[in-house]
Each structure stands twice: as C-alpha cells, then as structure tokens.
Amino acid sequence: MASGKKLVIVESPSKGNKIASYLGSDYVVDASVGHIRDLPTPSEMPADMKKGPYGKFAVDVDNGFAPYYVVDANKKKKVAELKRALKDADELYLATDEDREGEAIAWHLLETLKPKVPVKRMVFHEVTKEAIQRAVNDTRELDVQMVNAQETRRILDRLYGYEVSPVLWRKVRAGLSAGRVQSVATRMVVERERERMAFRAASYWDVEGEFEAKSSQAFTAKLTGVDGERVASGRDFGDDGRLKSSGVRHLDGAAAEKIAEATRAGHAEVSAVSEKPYSRKPSAPFITSTLQQEASRKLRLGSKDTMRVAQRLYENGYITYMRTDSVALSEQAISAARQQARDLYGAEYVPDAPRRYAGKSKNAQEAHEAIRPAGDRFRTPAQVAGELRGTEFALYELIWKRTVASQMADAKGSTASVKVAVGVESSGIAKRAEYSASGTVITFRGFLAAYEEGRDADRYSNDDGERRLPKLSEGVGLDVLRAEALGHETSPPARYTEATLTKALEERGIGRPSTYAATVGTIQDRGYVRTRGSALIPTWLAFAVTNLLETHFPSLVDYDFTASMEEGLDRIAAGDEERAAWLTRFYFGDEGESAEGLKQLVDDLGEIDARGISTIPIGEGLVVRVGRYGPYVEEEVPNGIDPATGEVKEGFDPEKVGEKPRRASITDDIAPDEMTPAKIRELLDASDDDGRVLGTDPESGHEIVAKSGRYGPYVTEVLPEVTPADGEKPKKKAAKPKPRTASLFKDMDLATIELDTALKLLSLPRVVGVVEEKATAEDGTETTKQVEITAQNGRYGPYLKKGTDSRSLENEAQLFTITLEEAEAIYAQPKQRGRAAAKPPLKEFGADPTSGKPVVVKDGRFGEYVTDGETNATLRKDDDVETLTAERAYELLAEKRAKGPSTRKKAAKKSTKKAATKKTAAKKTTTKKTAAKKTTAKKA
Questions:
Q1: Is the pLDDT of residue 227 over 70?
Q2: Higher pLDDT, 708 or 543
Q3: Which one has a higher pLDDT value, 748 or 733?
Q4: Which pLDDT does position 854 carry in this prediction?
Q5: Fewer CB atoms near the end CB (10 Å): N or C, the chain?
Q6: Number of Cβ within a 10 Å radius of residue 909
C-alpha cells in the first residue's frame, strides 16, 4: 500500500544523501549505484539464446539492431531494493545525471522497475538546495532521443570490439582489445612516436648580447639578422634536420664565434624602437577537456584523478556538473562571478558589460553550462577551506579562480621592441649584425589578478614573459657589455601527455566529455601506452596493433571517419537521424555511396601477414618484432652480412660471420624513439655475451659467471658438457642437470660483484640452524624431532622457513647474517596473518553516516581499503591514501553495501542466466514509446 512518499533515484549514494537533506520527509532518495543492466557477454547468455540472433553480440543486427539486456549479477540485490521502495511510493522521480549516459540509466531503471505510478524526469546541474528544489518542481519527460544516441554508442562499441578484437587475438596476441575511440587514440600516440623516431636533430647558432646606454639599465638581445638576412632559428628546420626556410642565414659555431667577437669590439646603436598597446582577454570557463588539461598542468593530476575529484565536488554541492562541452554561464552565475570580482578586486576590475562565451560544439550531448562553483552565490576558497582538503580544495580553487576571472576586465599594458645594429666587418662573415629584444609591461592586471591559464611546452617558444626594457630612442649609442655565441639543437615533437592527448582528441572531434578520461585510462590499462613522468609512450604492442588496423581497417582508425561517427550520434540525439538506419550503414555498408561496412571489412580480410604486421623496421637491417611472449630485437640477416647485397660486409672478418640472425628479448623500458640501430647492436652483443667470469667455485670446480638477463642481473655456474663414452649410445630423453642460479640483491651491482658474494648467493637457501620440535602421536605420546630453519629468497622477498611455517625477513642482507638465536626469536612471536604484523590505520575518519562506526583506512594483503569494522571496501586505482577524504571513504563503503556480499562464480552464472531469460522484455527496438511497450508486453 502506498505511503504517499515520493521515490527519487540517483546514481551515487553520496549524492543521494545530499539531495535527501534538501527534499524533506516526503521524499525517499535511493541510489542505483551506476548502471543496473547492460549487454551480456556470450558467456552470460542463456544456452537457448546463444544460437539465436543475439548469440554473437547480444544485438540482433538483422532486426533493427535490437539489443538484449540483462541485469548485472551484482545489481540484482539493488534492483530488488528499488522495487520494494517503489511499492511504497506514489511517484517516481528519475534524478540521474543530465547527459546521455544519465538519460540511458534513467531509461533502464524505467524498463526494469516497470513502475505503475507517475514517473517524472528530474534534472539539475548542481547539487544545491535551490537547484534541487527547482528541479523537483520543474520536471520533464524522458528524452528518448538522448537514450537512442547512448544506446547506439553502446551497440556501436560492441560491434566494433567483437568484430575487430578477434582479429588481433589471431594475428598479434590473445586477449587484446580494439575500441572505436581507444584504437584511434592509440594510433595518435604511435604516430607521434613515429615522428620522434624519424626525427633528425639540426644544430644552429646565434649570439646573445648584453647592451647598456648611459645612465640606463642593461638589457639582453639576440642576434636575429646579418646583412639584412634573418638568422635561422629552430622553426626554420624540418624534422629531417634540413633547412626548410629560404632567405635565412644558417650560422655554424665558427661563424657565430666570429660575430660575437666582432660585436664585443664593435660599435652598437639603437636602430629601431617601437611600442604598441598590449591587451589580453581571460579564458572561457572550464569545460571537461580544459579542466583536465589545466589540472594536469597546475595540479599534476591525471585525467581519471581529475574527474574523480570533480565528481565528489559535484555530488557534495561544490561545483556544477563536470561532464560538459559548453562554456556558457547562466545569468545567475554571471552575476555571482561579477559581484565576487567587484567585492574582492574592485569595480575597475569588472567590465561594464558581462562576458558571454559560446563554444564550438554543436552537439546536445552534455550539460548546457560550464563547470563553475555551485549556487547563485559562489563560496570563496577561504570559505570552503575548513570543509575541503588536498586535491579537492586545489581543484575547487582552480575552478573558482577560472570562473571569476572569466568575468573580469582585460589585462592591459604595452609591448616594446628594440633593434640594435652593430658593425661586424672584422668578423669576415658579415658587415652588419642586428640584435632584437622585446618586453611586455603589464600596467593593469585585470583578470590576471585572479587567474592565469597554464601553457603546454612549445618546442619553438622563446617567450621571455613579462620584461621591462629601458626607455631608448633611435640613434642612441650603446656599450657592449657581453656577446656570447650560443649553440642550439632542434628538438623532436613533444610526446603527448594525458592533457595534450585530450586536447588533440577534442580538436579532432573524437570522443566527448564523458569519454576522454576513460579513453586515456583504457589505452594505459590495456598495455598500449605507458607513462614516463607525464609523457605517454606507446609500447611495441601498440605499434603492432596500429600496423594491423592501418593496413586492414584503415577507415576504422581514420580520424575524420571517427569524428563523423560522433557527429552521427549527435544527430541521433537531436532527432535528425534514425539509429537503426545509421547502424545499418556502419555495419552493412552503404551501397549508394559504395562504402564498405564493418561486416564486409572483416569478412573480406584475406591473408594477413602476422609476422609483417608485428615487425617494426629500425634501420640497417635491424627490426623489433612483437612475439607471443613479448617484444624482441632481431637482425634480418646474420651478423656481418650486408642486408642489401647478401654478401659479407667490406672489412668484416669472414670467420666472425654469424650462422643465423641474432635476437634478444627486450622490455618496454626503452622507448621506441631510443631504440636505434646502435642500441639494438648493444642489446644483441649483450645477449651473445656469455657473462663476466668471476672465478672458479673451489668446491665444484665450475666456472661462476655474472650475466644480465631479461629479468635482471644474476649469477650462475657453467656446467661442463656431458659427452657419452666411446661406444656408448646417448640416453634418450635424459634430463640435463640444471646449473645453480641466483638473482643479485637490489643493492648489488653487476659490474662490481665478486666471486665470494656470488658463491654466497648460490649457496642459498642457507641452513641457519637446527631446532628441536615436540610432536604428539595419535596414542598421546610425545616425541622430539629435529627441524632445520633455512633462510631463503622468494618471489615476495626474503623469509625464514621451518617445516611448513614461514616468516618474513626485513631485508635481503639478513639471509647471510641472521643467527639461530635471532631466528628463534622471530618464531617465538605469534604468527600474524599475511606477511606482516598488524599495522596501525593509515588514516582515520569520523563515524560512517550509515553504520555510525568510525571509519579507517588500512593496509591489507591485497592493498589499502576502508572499513567501519563491518564493511570493507578496497580503494580504487585512482584513490590515493594521502588525499582520500571522509566523503570518498563513506562513498566507497556505501557502494560496497549496495552491491551486497560477493557470490561464487557458479551461483552468479546461474543467476545471470535466469535473469537474462526474464529480461528479454527489456529489449528496445524503436524510438517510439508504443513499440517499446509492445515489446515489453510480449516478453513479460
């Protein structure tokens, strides 16, 4: 029986708690904890469905691309809770996020819960009391077109992944994945690395001079011209190292030195002075991509970290919705920003007319306002300092500054330029040298008083920033205080960072605000890209996968084609395109335009040269190959053979020619642009190296060598070859004796290790001593036996072993030094579960809002986790103990409670199938509500 309550469903428990506090006792707020259902994988499909039209993709491609959904196994408990709550409600408010994904979650809730009470769609872009109360009184209908667009994206990604990934499994390596946006993003990172591999540095020189007029300050200027010709700088050279600009003078070191010497001895005077006004406008408020870029530059946060922190700020009412591509601000926000700028900086810092920003994006996918502080009046960073800590405070401050600055006045100033002429006839290079200097002076800081946008490194930048030049006039003589020749080298294109890759994707129209962080994270998680500092470096695996896709699926990794798919999804969201027809063109092709579809591309692949795809030429007959067990380097022909002629190289000793091409395993520690022919030869020579002979083991008489292996440096013994006696037949399948081998400790150096240390390593495990242990027989009699305690080095570090009882040691050195007495003392201590004694909490918070018990962060066997003593929740990959907030800890616990206890695989599988059978009804085939209802009734 209904209780007169109104049920409000959001995605996040923490957001739900905040909203509940604003709505009052007539409302019950619950959370779905994200998506509740999805397309099942083939293993999750019921047996009777696997052979039908849904068996391959969980999508019927021959009947309007109808999807087949099942409730996720770990969401069944939550769905049951929501259904129980709905029974007691008179109205249902679907209050999921206002983007396409949020709209799709609302639709799935509607299809799964099948409410018999009025349903309202409640949308808001900030979690404040005013916004929530406005939203609950100003609801709308579910936007089916947005649902169609999101469903099309999900089906599109399923078709792409399930058709293309198996090709990668067969031709590159099992377990690989392809994705519509991730594969394009990977290609962009690979292409940038190819540019770096092909790059050839060019050297060029110029001269820096320091000049001074009488009773004036000194200033520096750079040589920019000789005899009317401009002096070449870095931007005048191509990436092949050649001069690409005409009409410029390329100076070498000798010429620059002579000009510098002549400058020091010559007469200098001001040849030209110019001054012009300087004005700079503030940047627009943040959208998703610019927030990620600026947080990377200023806070050193990755894309995922930025979005995770922003999500918490949004859910707790500090900022507006963080997935948006609109730079517009509401009238209330404009008024709040202008008022705050006026209060904090003065009326002169606020322009007469408000600034209104318009974005380039034409789509209707995301929220329609920029990311800004929440509310009709903004809280300053000082006002939230007592509530926010660490990265949450830093990100809020960044958003606040950017928003307020966007409504402030332009920065004003002047830019002065000075040219200095010096006679350099004595150099023998030129008659006249021209030096240039410029400086900008800010006379009114305007928006810079609040905020200045960061900049990414520019390989050609020579911006000196704000600099004041002395007042000078033409013809004034100058003293030359210093003239110095400076050499430079051109630099390769900078690698992408997470921020610059996001910017590049956005500029190409690839992906949308809700996908940037996920895309950048996915290509790292899948092993296609790794990081060095903030730089993104492609692995050799990424090269192989990109080679295959470029060769056999060129349209799928074409930048314009991928951007056009995003535009198609935007048209579906706007109601200008029908999803089934659009998917048909993508999958089956368009005969009218002679365009191949995905199915035809896969069906007509033909022969794929797996070895060729996985081969990356480095030069001089040397290649990197991606094999089944990892990458390796290889010679295309044996050492000493000219790959072009097949003959022995001139001057090479014929007796040293290799019998077959050499190869050596490599890791991804060496970046692709560092893998030069010289580096490969070094690796091949090291692989050929039999190691450094340390001496002979006095006990066995075997040689002991130190070598470098794929998994690090180690020592081993060289066993003599066993040859059968005369007339004796060799034994078949006789197992060869294995040499003793031991890895070097972390503090040991391969180049300096000595025989004594090597023998100690090879002596492990070491018997520390023997102790007596009492044992009780079945008849109750006690016996005593002797048990060895040994010191061993294992996969997880050094440890002691006594029978089946193992105890960890603190460091590797103890393996050689620990005494029997010390070992017995360790065993006298109670054994702790896991590898170490119980540790104090890493961090402590207040009482959990649900359980009322104190929450702490602990270090467990499988990593850090939060617990209230009843529920444990493992920290996610992007959660950092140092910056973890109480709100985030409570959120993790709430999510874990919502999921319920873990179930065994068999039970989950059985449950999934059962649910899948019931949920055939959830299939949605058209945009029309009548059709959706008809399908639901048929399958119920």
A1: yes
A2: 543
A3: 748
A4: 87
A5: N
A6: 14
DSSP sequence for 110-122: HHHH--SS-EEE-
d(CA 905, CA 595): 44
pLDDT for res 49: 86
Picking from 687, 640, 689, 639, the residue whose alpha carbon sits closest to that of residue 664 is 687
What's the rounded Cα separation, in Å, for the pair 643 and 619?
10
Helix (H, G, I), strand (E, B) or coil at 451: coil
Question: Are 557 and 549 a contacting pair, CB within 8 Å?
Answer: yes
Residues for the chain: how many in total? Answer: 940
Query: Binning pLDDT at 50, 70 and 90, where does residue 367 land?
Result: low
pLDDT score recorded for residue 932: 36
Using alpha carbons, list the distances in angstroms from residue 322 to 13, 25, 370.
18, 29, 8
H/E stretch holding 566 = helix 559-574
Percent residues over pLDDT 70 in the chain = 87
Half-sphere exposure of 853 (CA within 13 A, CB side): 10
How far is the C-alpha of 527 from the C-alpha of 535, rounded, in Å?
15
Strand, helix or coil for residue 852:
coil
Whole-number Å distance between alpha carbons of 435 and 418: 8
What is the pLDDT confidence band of residue 910, given thresholds at 50, 70 and 90? very low
Q: State the Cα–Cα distance between residues 737 and 823, nearest whole angstrom.
A: 33
Token digits of residue 208: 């820096």
Q: Which residues fall within 8 angstroms of residue 24, CB to CB, at 6 or more apart? A: none
Helix (H, G, I), strand (E, B) or coil at 693: strand
Direct distance between the N- and C-terminal alpha carbons of the chain, in angstroms, rounded to an integer = 23
More confident call, 834 vs 329: 329
Give Cβ neighbours of residue 175 (< 8 Å, ≥ 6 apart). Answer: 169
SS3 of 334, please? Answer: helix
Q: What is the pLDDT of residue 707?
A: 83
8 A C-beta contact, residue 751 and residue 725:
no
Round the average pLDDT of the chain to a whole number and report it: 86
CA 868 – CA 856 distance, rounded (Å): 7
Distances (CA, A) of 259 to 221, 226, 237, 265, 653: 14, 9, 22, 10, 49
What is the rounded distance in angstroms from the CA atom of residue 225 to the CA atom of residue 435? 7
Is 827 annotated in the active site?
no
Q: Which of 337-346, 583-592, 757-766 has the lowest mean pLDDT?
A: 583-592
Identify the active-site residue in 54, 321, 435, 451: 321
- Strand segments (E) across 521-659: 529-532, 535-538, 615-619, 622-627, 630-635
* Beta pairing partners, 776: 782
Q: What is the pLDDT of residue 903?
A: 47
pLDDT tens readout for residues 95-124: 999 889 999 999 999 999 999 999 999 999
Which comes out higher in pLDDT, residue 830 or 704? 704
Whether residue 748 contacts residue 813, with contact meaning beta carbons closer than 8 Å, is answered with no
The Cβ of residue 813 has, within 10 Å, a number of other Cβ atoms equal to 12
d(CA 705, CA 716): 6
Mean local confidence (pLDDT), 25-43: 92
Helices (H), 127-243: 129-137, 144-171, 182-198
d(CA 303, CA 395): 13
Asked whether the bond before 765 is cis by omega within 30 degrees of 0, the reply is: yes
- What is the spatial distance between Cα 436 and Cα 219, in angstroms, rounded to a whole number? 10
Rounded Cα gap, residues 881 and 843, in angstroms: 7
Query: Contact at 8 Å (CB) between 583 and 65?
Result: yes
What 8-state DSSP symbol labels residue 155?
A: H
Helix, strand, coil fractions of the chain, as percent rounded to 5: 35, 25, 40
Q: How far apart are CA 276 and CA 413, in angstroms?
A: 9
Q: Kind of pairing, strands 89-94 and 5-10?
A: parallel
Residues with Cβ < 8 Å from 269, sequence gap 6 or more? Answer: 420, 421, 475, 476, 477, 478
Cα–Cα distance measured from residue 602 to residue 811, given in angstroms and rounded to the nearest whole number: 55
Q: Which of 773, 759, 768 is nearest to 792 (CA)?
A: 768
* Amino acid 912: pLDDT: 38
